[in-house]
Task: inverse folding
């Protein structure tokens, strides 16, 4: 079980072609703050039919794209 499972399920359930979430929204959904380990765990998202499209440190957002 991954610490980001709740986030992956949320993105998959949304079903949008692209979904933009703030770091704060991700923390609320996942129940944990986003950190550098996110870069390692983001590979798990492909199993849910999505990928991380862009991470903006300036805007503190992540764009998820359906594959």
Result:
């Amino acid at each position: 079980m991954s610490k980001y499972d709740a986030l992956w399920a949320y993105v998959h359930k949304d079903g949008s072609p692209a979904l933009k979430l703030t770091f704060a929204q991700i923390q609320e959904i996942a129940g944990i703050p986003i950190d550098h380990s996110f870069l390692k765990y983001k590979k798990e998202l492909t199993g849910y039919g999505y990928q991380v499209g862009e991470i903006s440190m300036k805007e503190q957002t992540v764009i998820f794209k359906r594959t």
